[in-house]
Structure formats: structure tokens, C-alpha cells
Amino acid sequence: MSAPMEVSFSAPPPPDAASAAAAAAPSLVPAVAATAAAATTVLLHATSTARAEDVCAAVERMLEARSLSYVDGPVPIPNDDPFLLASVKRIQICDTDEWIENHKVLLFWQVRPVVHVFQLSEDGPGEEPGEDDTLSSFNEWALPAKEFDGLWESLLYEVGLKQRLLRYAASALLFTEKGVDPCLVSWNRIVLLHGPPGTGKTSLCKALAQKLSIRFKSRYSMCQLIEVNAHSLFSKWFSESGKLVAKLFQKIQEMVEEESNLVFVLIDEVESLAAARQAAISGSEPSDSIRVVNALLTQMDKLKSWPNVIILTTSNITTAIDIAFVDRADIKAYVGPPTLQARYEILRSCLQELLRVGILTHTQGLSGRTLRKLPFLAHASVANPSCCDASAFLHALIQTAQRELSESRG
């Protein structure tokens, strides 16, 4: 088993005289945020037998001794720390987006490490077989899973989307655990991600479940992800559909009855459920189908009484989602095509990976001076410089680079 851990940070005031004076006269200065939203993941070697408490202490000492700024990315393991060298495979700072956006840099004296230790499950998904060679009704993972390691970091969206989801889930679990009266303050712990196909909605749901299983490891000793195959629930309209729904939620019920379990239920392409009910209402499908969808919504409502379950859903066709389900979702986030910056980062990460494994190799290229001129020369070569879209500019950039490289070689 590989065992990573996550380190989150809170920010004390800076250790200087000015800050001390500000603290002495709070009415004269604005309040300073007390917490920095930052985290560090630490992946242990699969063969490591080090105690979690010892690793926590060693990581805290290492971070405090670095005296460097914090930004997202890998942290080198100190060569003079044999314990960490023998135990740790990877250390990486992550989730500092909001802090960097507001403050540009996270300084070493602004963080205090709080370590959360967890094990990474190497087991693959467990499949619940369907009856009579039908589709399986759901797959099950123990979280955090090796299969999803690094997935959160690889997903690139508009700034703030992932942080918004993390903050929502943290609040939803906190409100339930603290016993906030749901008759006075309503929340359902249901997330709906919608948008066109291929934008990574399902991957984001899995990555979110993985991330939260790490964040709440100190509260829940076991975390599970149930991925529901929505199509399988409606494979037998006239006889078995109700039984499939009942069997699925009986399994989920057994999981959430254990208070130390945190359960994530992922329903992909949830519009297929809404479409079935709309078709039944219009008379194009048997009435049994509407009873099945109603039963599913009722079962989801029952899960509200359990504090340790979050329902994650996706949809490719927003307009097809039943309004009854949309009303139940606490957070409805649109996941669209990647922005220009995200597309650049995706391609850059792909090239870096191909270079890392040796599929692509470095070749002698252009000088730094020539590289700095390339954007100007490329823009000057397009047919309409005053109105040039990104794709045309990239095409011109490649052609210009090839020409400059050819000329430099004579």
C-alpha cells in the first residue's frame, strides 16, 4: 500500500514589529485573515513502515526549516534527512490558488502545518453485477484510491471552480455534523455539474471525492465512492427497475449507517433519469418508469438524514434535467470547454510528460533572443493582423519558428 498524507496550513501574523503594533491597535487597521488555504500532499513509498505520527513530525520540521515561499508544485525531499528519504516518495504543495490570487505568494512565516495522514488504496473498483447479464448497477472504490492519484491536479478549469466545490462540501459536512436544524437552514448535500460532453465533469466528481476523503480522514476512518450506472436502473421497465433501485440504495444505506464511513454517490448523466420521467408523463413510456424515477428521488431525499453522504451528479443536457431534481441540488456549476490558458496548460503538461518518459527528445533550438521575437514575427505574417484569432496565430507561430530554425542552420 502507498500512503500519502496531506498537510494544510493556517497563517499566523508576520513576525515583525509593524504587525505587533497593528495587533495592539486593532481599531486602526483592517483585520487580517487568519487562515491560508494551502495544502501539501506527501506520498510514502509503498514499502514504508514508518509511523504516521513520526512522518507528520518530520514533515512539519522540514517545512518549518525551509524558510521559503510556498507555491503549487513539488517540494524536494532534503538530502540530509535520511528518514524522509527512506519513507517519502513525493511531496507536493497544492490548492493555494485563492491565496496566490490575492497575495501572489505564500511566505514561510505565514503557514503553520497541520498534517492529515491517510493510506492510498491500490484496489481497483469493485463491480456490482447485474442480473441476467444486464449492466452492472454500480461500481465501488475505497478512497483515496491509487486510480485517482493526481487526478485533481491534472484537471484545469476557470479559476475558483475547484475551490468553490471544496468549500461547498466542507460546509455541507460541517453543518450536518454540528447539528444545524435542517428545518431552519436547508441543504441537501447534492452537487450538479452540467455542461457539454468531454469537459471532465465525471473526472472532477471523482477527483473531488478523492480530495475530500483526504481532507476528512481524521473524522471518517473509511471513505467510499459509489458510481451509479443510471442506464442500468431503467433496463427493465416492466418488472425489475424498482428492484434495482431498491437494491442500490439498500447497499448505500448499509454504508452510511456506519458513522465512521464517508460515502460519495456519483450519478453520471443524470438527465437520463429526468428524460425517463418526462417521457412517462407525456405517455410515450409505461407508467412504471415514472414510479421508478419518483422512487429514486425519494431515496435520495432519505439520505439527507445521514451526515456522512454526498451525492455528485453530472449532466450533458442541462435543459433535459427534471426541475424536481434541479431544485434538490445545492450547487449547480457549469463546466464548459477549457479557456485559452487552460488549453495551453493542458498541452504543456502533455508535452512535459512525453519528454519525461523519453517519447519526445530535446533538440537544439532557437536562441532566447529569437524566441522573444517569434510572437511579433508570427503576428506580422498573418493576413489580417488587426483581427487575428488564436488558432490562426498559433499556426503562424509554428510556421515562423520553422522558418527561423531553418535560416539559423543555414
From TrEMBL:
Keywords: ATP-binding, Meiosis, Nucleotide-binding, Nucleus. InterPro entries: AAA+_ATPase, ATPase_AAA_core, ATPase_AAA_CS, ClpA/B, P-loop_NTPase, Pch2-like, Pch2_C. GO terms for molecular function: ATP binding; ATP hydrolysis activity. It is found in: Nucleus. One of its GO terms (cellular component) is nucleus. One of its GO terms (biological process) is reciprocal meiotic recombination. CDD domains: RecA-like_Pch2-like (cd19508). Residues 187-339 form the AAA+ ATPase domain. The keyword Magnesium does not apply. Belongs to the AAA ATPase family. PCH2 subfamily. Plays a key role in chromosome recombination during meiosis. This is Pachytene checkpoint protein 2 homolog. It comes from Oryza nivara (Indian wild rice).
